[in-house]
Write a structure and sequence with these properties.
The protein is α/β, with parallel strands linked by helices and about 200 residues long. About 55% of the residues lie in helices and about 10% in strands. Strands 2-3-1-4-5 form a 5-stranded parallel sheet, with helices on both faces. Helix 3 packs antiparallel against helix 5.
């Protein structure tokens, strides 16, 4: 079994890379999906967020309002750190359980841990291979404007609230340049999957 980390930045196409890897047979451990599960209404993490941020981050159904939460943490690094300190430990624990369970799938298994904040949290140090879904910042901004129908100023603010993509590139052992066509991305991902499979 081989376990690699996958990361990127907002609008760099990390989800596309993860989808292609899964389609090729990799087991993708999705930190975002796990994060949504651990903050579901009534969980200990949901309660801790409610205690820290108040009911204004809850929707009418009592579930966490991700837009309301996002508006707070995008503009306030201290509150972002507070939220991360509540959510991340529970996410990491579940990720570890899923990776451990993958061992039963036998030799040749490729596990990819898809973690948006892989590098920022220092988690990348636990992986021999760190795969980065990469596009230049100007492409991030253009794609984010189109995807979210927001202004350039808003898109820049979101992009620059994260670690710069060029900084992340320094930590990557594998870079998938996602600024071309879907087919070009797929070819790069296929090559990466074959390499990881040969090492598994």
């Amino acid at each position: 079994m081989v376990v690699a980390g996958l990361t990127g930045g907002i609008a760099t196409g990390k989800s596309t890379v993860a989808r292609v890897l899964a389609g090729l047979g990799a087991l993708v451990v999705d930190a975002d999906r796990i994060a949504r599960e651990v903050v579901a209404k009534g969980t200990p993490v949901w309660q801790a967020i409610r205690d820290a941020f108040g009911d204004e981050v809850l929707g009418p159904d009592g579930e966490l309002d991700r837009d309301a939460m996002g508006a707070i943490i995008f503009s306030d690094p201290e509150k972002r750190a507070l939220l991360n300190g509540i959510v991340h430990p529970a996410v990491y624990e579940e990720m570890d359980l899923q990776v451990e369970a993958a061992k039963s799938l036998g030799p040749g298994t490729v596990v990819v841990c898809d973690v948006p904040l892989l590098i920022e949290t220092g988690m990348h140090k636990g992986f021999r291979d760190v795969i980065l879904a990469y596009v230049p910042e100007d492409v991030q901004v253009e794609r984010l404007m189109a995807r979210d129908r927001i202004s350039r100023e808003q898109a820049l603010k979101k992009v620059r609230s994260q670690m710069p993509i060029e900084e992340k590139r320094k930590y990557a052992t594998i870079v998938i340049d996602n600024s071309g066509t879907c087919e070009q991305t797929r070819e790069q991902v296929l090559s990466v999957y074959r390499r990881l499979s040969s090492e598994a």
